[in-house]
User: Fold this.
Amino acid sequence: MGVSSQPGSGQQAAASLNGSYAIAAHDLNVYYGAFRAVKDISLKVRRHQITALIGPSGCGKSTLLRAFNRMNELIPSAHATGEVHFQGQNIYAPEIDPVEVRRRIGMVFQKPNPFPKSIYENVAWGARINGFRGNMDDLVEQSLRQAALWDEVKDKLHQSGLGLSGGQQQRLCIARAIAVRPEIILMDEPASALDPIATLKIEELMHTLAVAYTIIIVTHNMQQAARASDYTAFLLMDSDRAGTLIEYGPTRELFTKPKDQRTEDYITGRFG
Assistant:
């Protein structure tokens, strides 16, 4: 199958990150204080593919997503055990700078959150603070083109990003993430606040971006997971309320021939 959810050693997880895999978790646990939100997660995410994280509310999908770029650590009570390997290193090693991790593994949130700045400055801001020394005009245009937004905003780059529609604002946030040249883009329900037409644009955009980036998306929408993703991971709350990985594999197989009865029950609407 090529994608494994079987735990091995941390060294094996690191060694397996060849040309096929972008990032791999090994025995990953995330806690908020004493509460364990995700439990013993081991999985490898394929490079240049769209991987969906699905499961009922409260099963740890967003927590797992944020663990891939150490975003959970912005919550004072949060801490993690286990390993996440990216570019040959465990991103949770003491010497690793979480700010650099977040630059290389970007994030797009559920609700569009453009800065109260111009469209141009929204895109340029992250690149500027990260020391970009190239042609900023070219970078802004390239990022907006990659986010399928350039043609809609090229004549109003100096107008506020807050004046855009919800779907345009979300694509602006994607352009902002792209501008710092990440290798992975994490998306936490990026279309849940959008209408169906804007949602379709985001899904089409994800397919275009997967040529250059690895994308991991959290979604509650089973149809969206089936349409938009190449691989799917199904999480479920364990008896101790911690999110656990039930099944992980190619989306087509998981939706048509799930190996676990709980997966079939969830995707067919029997629970969740």
Observations:
- The first strand starts at residue 21 and ends at 32.
- Strands lie at 21-32, 35-46, 50-54, 78-86, 89-90, 105-108, 184-188, 214-218, 231-237, 243-250.
